[in-house]
Amino acid sequence: MALVDDLLEGGNVVTGLVIGAAALIVWPLVGPLVRPVAKSAIKGGILAYREATRLYDGTMRGIGDLAKEAADELGPELAKEAVEEVGVDLAKEAL
CA angle, corner 43, sides to 37 and 44, nearest 5? Predict the structure, then answer.
C-alpha cells in the first residue's frame, strides 16, 4: 500500500527506481501484447484529431461566410465604419 500511496502523492526516488526496474523487466514480456492496443489507440487519436480539425475549419469557414453576408447587408460605408471602430478599440487595448 505504501507504494500506491507514494505514487498518488508524487512519489520519491526509490519509488521511481522500483517502477523503472519493474518496467525494464516486464516490458519485454508484455510489449508484444500491448503494442497492437497502443497502435490502435494512436490511430484513433490521429483520426479524431483529423476530424476535429475538419470540423473546426468548416465552422470557421461558415462563420466567415456569415460575417461577410452581414457586412454586405450593412452596406460598404457602415461596414467600413464598424471595421475602423474595431481597429481603434484593438489598438487601444494593445497599448
Answer: 90
> In Å, how far are 56, 60, 62, 64, 94 from 49, measured between CA atoms?
10, 16, 20, 22, 33
- Nearby residues of 74 by Cβ (< 8 Å), 6 or more positions away: 82
Q: Whole-angstrom Cα distance, residue 13 to residue 84?
A: 60
pLDDT at 5: 66
Rg (alpha carbons) of the chain, rounded to whole number: 27
User: How does the average pLDDT of the chain come out, rounded?
Assistant: 82
Q: What is the C-alpha to C-alpha distance for residues 20 and 24, in angstroms, rounded to an integer?
A: 6
- Contact present, 6 and 12 (Cβ < 8 Å): yes
Query: Is residue 31 over pLDDT 80?
Result: yes
pLDDT value at position 37? 93
pTM equals 0.49
